[in-house]
Amino acid sequence: MGGTVVLEEKWPVLVRHERAAEWLRVWTDLGRAPRTIDAYARGLAEYLAMCDREGVDPLAANRAHVAAYVRELTERPSHKGANVMSIDSGSGLANATIQQRLVPVRLFYDYLMEEGLREFNPVGRGRYTPGRRHGGHRRGLVPRLTKLPWIPTEQQWTDILAVAADEPVRNRVMLALAYDAALRREELCSLRTDDLDPAHRTLRVRAETTKNRRERVVPYSAPTGVLLSGYLTHRATISRARGPLFLSESRRNHAQPLSLWTWSKVVRRIALAAGLPRFSTHTTRHLCLTDLARMGWELHAIATFAGHRSTDSTLTYIHLSGRDLADKLTKGMNQIHAWRVEMLARLGEQGLGAVRR
């Protein structure tokens, strides 16, 4: 309840709409992560604010009102450039951001339907319905655009590591683990000392820290193990207590668990120093999974390593470059060519045998 009060203070429009505040409390009571609740509150608050400005009762809003909200999102000023004039034009809110803003609005109307306050949800939900006429495909309100993730080249990765070499041991081991185990930012920062198994060089990613609430055990490399051993020795000079693995060393938060935002700032600093502003806390995860694909790992094995429920999710993380695909094609064609030549050679031998007979 306390968390909900803070959010309602942050987004006062939620207080003015009783059903919205009620819906948010339900999700809070169900134990959704604080970051998820904050994202839901922000998205719904922005929609309700638009309804207030337009004099629309959100409980009676229709698809046209939701479409007006989408248009407002696409025309919103952005610090990256001029106002966006079309969805995902590159100068305003990204397509993924617009999708995120619509999720809480759609869930809110789902809730109103469950409570018997509405008969339909004005926010479209893209899905496939077997047996439905005209192909069974139903488009969402906003087309979902899927872009390839950015991953660094070998030289760019070398540049990142060159900058990271001057970082404190904590930051170096965090970067190494983020790549080795393909960890999400929250999974990395939430690691505890008892999640480590140095004898087998594995770490446990607890269910409560993962995106899909599925626990997994993943390995890390020998070089990372050496870095980790050095960090554990250093950590003992900060705190000998068991608990969060990565601790803050600042005067204000000395020996406190390292926050997500602090780690983001560290990675951002490294990225800018290396001249690679697109490098982020998630890049190491993309890079690791792509490297596993390059090494010939099967898709389901990569999905298990990443902690994905579906291999469809894994596919969006794997980014094989045109050069990678060209190499695969060349190797495949060479094998096919060799097979055909061998068959022709056998055919020639058979022909020669027939002539001799």
From TrEMBL:
Pfam families: Phage_int_SAM_1, Phage_integrase. Transmembrane segments: none annotated. PROSITE patterns: CB (PS51900), TYR_RECOMBINASE (PS51898). It comes from the Bacteria. InterPro entries: CB, DNA_brk_join_enz, Integrase-like_cat_sf, Integrase_catalytic, Integrase_recombinase_N, Integrase_SAM-like_N, Tyrosine_recombinase_XerCD. The keyword DNA-binding applies. The keyword Coiled coil does not apply. This is Tyrosine-type recombinase/integrase. It comes from Nonomuraea helvata.
